Amino acid sequence: MSFTVLIPARLASTRLPNKPLADIAGTPMVVRVAQRVLSIDGTKPRVVVAADSPEIVAACQLHGVDAVLTRIDHPSGSDRLAEACALLGLADDEIVVNVQGDEPLIDPGLVAAVATLLQNTPQAQMSTAAHAISSVAEFHNPNVVKVVLDAQNMGLYFSRSPIAYPRDAPEQLPHPAPLRHIGIYGYRVGFLRQFPTMSQAPIELTESLEQLRALWHGYRIAVHVTDCAPAAGVDTPEDLARVRQLFAL
């Protein structure tokens, strides 16, 4: 199958200024992400960085990575992705996968799995991923987003609260194991064009989870369950130091 990977990249970052251009073994981080995705086995996706500054575009071009310059004032990542789709002339029935520009260790196989799942699930407008939670502390951590599925592995709900809640044994993990949501998304381009124009959902605002807008409006999200927890992204200087050390090995 063919699909496009879009990597949104913004220079503004409170905890790590100029994060997309942070050097990792001589290469900007956002380029490392693109190179990682391009290592997918089999059919190679089209990989494009959706940048908010000429500096990011120039850095990508210097390393042979496609990039488009998008507006700097987008209120959300989905708005930036929608503009990138328009700039690239993508058709409504095409599939794009959103990979964050701060994940230089992302599993290329996971990217391909999310795209393939959406391709094979015509009743869904989005796809994403999850993996089993093995720690009670993680299950109760509000920074860990949980997801519950229906019988067809479609997302029923995403929450920062522990779901499904084990009423009779609240200090234990429920069985089967609860699922941690992984923040990677596949979209049908036609749906992605509509998504930023939809009214925000009350549950989205309460949980601060944008994917709940799709569920609230009646759209479906297919979920790929992987056996492996993904490598952590880069949010802080400490994260960057850890990743640099890995690339230096």
For the record, give the distance between the C-alpha atoms at the N and C termini, rounded to a whole number. 34 Å
Mean pLDDT: 94
- DSSP summary, beta strand count: 11
Query: Which class do the helix and strand fractions yield?
Result: alpha/beta
Q: Count up the helices.
A: 9
Q: Indicate the radius of gyration in whole angstroms.
A: 18 Å
Low-pLDDT runs: none
Major sheet, described briefly? 9 strands, mixed
Q: Helix fraction? A: 25-40%
The backbone outline, from C-alpha atoms, is: globular
Q: Give the SSE string.
A: EEEHEHEHEHEHEEEHHHEH
List keywords for this structure.
249 residues; alpha/beta; 9-stranded mixed β-sheet; two-stranded antiparallel sheet; 31% helix; globular
How would you describe what is shown here?
The protein has helices spanning 29-37, 54-62, 77-88, 108-119, 136-140, 189-194, 202-207, 212-216, 237-248; strands at 4-9, 23-24, 27-28, 46-51, 66-69, 95-98, 126-132, 146-149, 155-159, 179-188, 221-226. The longest helix has 12 residues, at 77-88. The protein has 249 residues and is an alpha/beta fold. The chain is built from nine helices and eleven strands. The protein is 31% helix and 22% strand. The model has no long low-confidence stretch (mean pLDDT 94). The strands form two sheets. Strands 1, 4, 5, 6, 7, 8, 9, 10 and 11 form a nine-stranded mixed sheet that branches.
